[in-house]
Write a sequence for this structure.
């Protein structure tokens, strides 16, 4: 069950780009500006739908046959390959790391209640330069607890990471 194959309909949007539906998952919808981006979004969206269904414990629907799907003139049908094990490893697992820093830096960081994991996560992301933003899971909100005056970035800010100043 690690590799799954489901059909997706890529509809050409009037304003450009694509919107995607899944015959086997009616509540699963996504979109993309280019075919490449739309495909990546389809894989990510399918992953969310499948993992949500598996949490509820019913079996996954069997994949439809292409001959059972009605394709409109503004749509194409594509097979989405989904690797459940790879998706779960990427989105659900954490790697524990041990690092060494000067004692004074540790004391100052703890005194300011700065979360080590959030800072390390934010510092490493630019180093790997992902090919597409959807390839990285977002930083969980709980990392922001205890970080005074910081919230997810939604505008211009003096910080270069994904957070912005919201305090005084």
């Amino acid at each position: 069950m690690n590799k799954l194959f489901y059909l997706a309909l890529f509809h050409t949007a009037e304003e450009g780009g694509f919107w995607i539906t899944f015959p086997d998952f009616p509540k699963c919808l996504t979109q993309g500006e280019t075919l490449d981006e739309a495909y990546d979004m389809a894989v990510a969206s399918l992953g969310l739908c499948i993992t949500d269904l598996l949490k509820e414990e019913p079996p996954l629907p069997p994949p439809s046959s292409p001959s059972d799907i009605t394709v409109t003139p503004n749509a194409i049908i594509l097979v989405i390959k989904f690797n459940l094990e790879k998706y779960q490893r990427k989105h659900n697992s954490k790697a524990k790391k041990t690092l060494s820093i000067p004692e004074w830096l540790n004391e100052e960081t703890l005194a300011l209640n700065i979360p080590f994991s959030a800072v390390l996560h934010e510092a490493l992301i630019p180093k790997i330069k992902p090919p597409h933003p959807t390839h990285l899971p977002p930083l969980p909100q709980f990392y922001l607890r205890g970080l005074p005056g910081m919230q997810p970035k939604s505008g211009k800010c003096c910080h270069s990471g994904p957070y912005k100043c919201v305090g005084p």
Notes: The chain has a mean pLDDT of 77. DSSP finds four helices and six strands in the chain. The longest strand covers residues 3-12.
